[in-house]
Amino acid sequence: MAENISTTSSATNSFSSTDTAILDTLIPGYSLISRFVVSRFDIDIASYLQYVILLATFGASFQYLIWYTMNVLERYFVSTAEIRLDDEIFNYFMYWMSRQPHMSKTNRFVAGVKTNGYWSDDDSDDEDDEKGMDELDEPGSGENEPTFDEYWAKLMGRDKYRTLRYTPAEGRHFFWFRGRPLMLERQQQHQSTRYVLNNETLFISCLGRNPTIIKELLNEAQQSYVERDGNRTVIYRGQRLYASRPFAWYRCMARSPRPLSTVVLDQTQKDEFISDIKEYLHPRTRRWYSNRGIPYRRGYLLHGPPGTGKTSLCFAAAGLLGLKLFLLNLDSKALDEDNLSSLFSDLPRRCIVLLEDVDTAGVTHSRGTDSSDKIKEEDSAEQAKEAGGDSNNPENEKEKEKKEEAKPNGITLSALLNVIDGVAASEGRILVMTTNHPEKLDAALLRPGRVDMSIQFGHTTQADIKELFTSIYTTMEGDLPRVAASRRLTNGTHKSVTNGSIHHAYTNGQAENKEKLQQQFEKDQETKIRLQELRVRISRLALEFASIVPNNEFTAAEIQGYLLNHKNAPEAAISGAEVWVQGIREKKRAQSNLIA
Fold it and tell me: Domain limits at 42?
């Protein structure tokens, strides 16, 4: 009786040959595995297969339930900010993130020294200079200062090791900000055919439906990114990093502002230039333009011989007004009308765009293909068809390729005019064009609305020569070593000078600091007296030098280059001025003879 029950049970649990074939199709190797398990362990897999399927179904359902629950929580109980690479806020956040203390503790990060939007050579160099300024100041500035060889050895040893920067690697990262836990997720689409960084995205998430903490973080990141520049002038360049990427503005450097007084130009012209820009940037001017339907744009043309200070004036104006400077080279063959329009549309509302040497960019008289040329091409194509010419003929294809190669690449004059003051032209920016030959420019480019003010730069006058000499040899505040200033405060002592008296505060009963401060104050007074005497002496020497160098014959760059060869010896510069003048004249005469 028991044998009959066992037979019936095994018959119920076993599968027919059809069922086994179906299982072999769904689970490859099922028959082989089943026979092996039965022969080895005397266990029929078919008896437990339904439990396995039930467990797998439960696991899949549980996994889906978890995924669905997480989606619901993220949708209704988590706030998320998305940051894309093509937006400048990406640079803000990555700059802030790379300088956070918790980045030194993470075990998944991207390490590098490569320059990009949020790391730059000038930024790292400035940080290193600030750290080592007290040690690596000018040699010979004090009694205990190192020699040049010692100074240079330290400097070269430091420059061998570039500052390492760390940013979060791809994936999820958790960190704390103002007592709140946040999550950063960095994603990259590796399956894209384009460069991988083009598709990089950041996600910042926090618990709760209130995203205020994320906005505070982004505001702090932006403030940290902007404050690193201080009052320096940030310069961008329009270019493309890879052939597959479009043109865009990339930050190339941030330089200390150039004083307007160092630009060699008639003071009246400088004042008119700056006053015109200030009037244009005033809020009431924009409203005045808008009320009268006039496009809110302003253009300037700086023209004159090379080396007369055209670019320097533009850079000084940007530093004086705190504007960003955008440089664009129109001579690039890869730059077309679409890229040019995209660059101008990405400009901020208040900035200076500098187009240098527009006469050499090949757009002075090029208006693209004329309609008459197109008609001639169409007529010749129709005549070729009537003559029985085959469009697929290899000879015809070669002729087409030659014509396409002969067509001019780059920007045409029409494209430039459309970008400057076309219907879709950007507003609020200041356009500055420089040229050495204004007579080569097309009249359409110089009409009012495109060029509203023209400033001519010429050779230096006697007043300019004197000003150049004085600026080169006068001791500036930044020329004094910073080591002496740092030594004034020691052991927690602070001093201030008022009406020739010294007020001091000292800690730990160290009264000897008073005597040190008194000595330092006397040294400072002696230094001021020497500087005043030096200024009087330099002013006298400047008059002597200006009397030797002729007026309206040399550019500011030529005179400055000569003075830099004698930057520590003004008397030597004066004694060799006549020989230098004769040499430059003979050189220019020889060049003119070659051209003739």
Answer: 2-73
